[in-house]
Amino acid sequence: MPAENPPSGGRLEIEDDGHALIVRIANESRANALDDTILDALVSLLEGPRAAAARAVVLTGAGDRHFSAGLDLGERTADELVDYLQQGERRLGRAARAIASCPSPVVGVLNGAAFGGALEIAIACDWRIARRGARLGMPAARIGVVYAADGLRRFVAAMGPARTRRFFLTGGPVDADEAYALGLVDQVVDAAALEEAVRAVVADVSAAAPLAVAGTRAIISTLTERAPWEEVEGTAAQARARAFGSEDFREGLAAFREKRPPGFTGR
Q: Is the pTM of this model over 0.85?
């Protein structure tokens, strides 16, 4: 299926390879920087039927050098930049929430450099695979910016407060292996093995029952958002009841007893 490219400097390239929905951030002349078109398109896609129908969504960058340089600061003055950053942060927040609440798991593939807001997008993914040698950085403090609370919350949930402090307060870039040690990424592979690693993750997710995957993700989201315990229990009760009442539960149990692969349908 050919990629779909909305008309603008920045765009999403979308491909359904039969196993996952592949989404590439494409803005090559600006190191795949995130502009309004890209962020709005990402929200629309992840909240729409194509993402819901996929067993997994893979989010990566076009080309082989950059995942994304984050929000494009351009040549704006300090006054212009304040308004631009605040608007951009709101769009970034919506995109991160769309990733976190997507009905299908989202795998972030950091195929190259990732900076600033691009890491907020990545940290919202269910897990992150990085190409060995890729550089990752959060330079907000080095330009005098205090990062938005919702974005910081996601980093703290993934990395812990001490490592988040180190990453944000120094502002210096780290390579993929150090990012793994910090908890910023979950897997680091050589460039030649990146595609195979992504396929393996997608295959593992696709083999699981969709309702069980969606329900578990929903519970984890309420836990990481520090929702009231009553809300966590309510989310869990709904997800578990739906799973226990599903055809997939009966199919999974039968397949386990018959020692065969299950044929899940999401019902």
A: yes
Q: Which residues contact 192 (CB under 8 A, 6 or more apart)?
A: none
Q: What is the pLDDT of residues 191-237, one digit of tens each?
A: 999 999 999 999 998 889 989 998 998 898 888 877 888 898 999 99
Q: Is 2 left (phi over 0), alpha (psi -120 to 50) or beta?
A: beta
* Residue spans per domain, the chain: 11-205, 208-258
C-beta neighbour count of 2 within 10 angstroms: 7
List the alpha helices (DSSP H) in the chain.
36-46, 49-53, 78-101, 117-123, 149-159, 161-170, 176-182, 194-206, 210-224, 229-244, 247-258
Q: What Cα–Cα distance (Å) separates residue 146 from each residue in 15, 87, 116, 158, 211?
A: 36, 15, 12, 19, 38
Distance of alpha carbon 42 from alpha carbon 37, whole angstroms: 8
11-205 fold = 2-enoyl-CoA Hydratase; Chain A, domain 1 (3.90.226)
**Among 9, 22, 121, 15, CA closest to 68:** 121
* pLDDT higher than 90, residue 188: yes
* pLDDT tens profile 133-159: 999 999 999 888 889 898 999 999 999
Rounded CA gap, 115 and 99, in Å?
18
Q: What distances in angstroms separate CA 12 from CA 6, 52, 105, 134, 246, one per listed residue?
A: 7, 17, 18, 21, 35
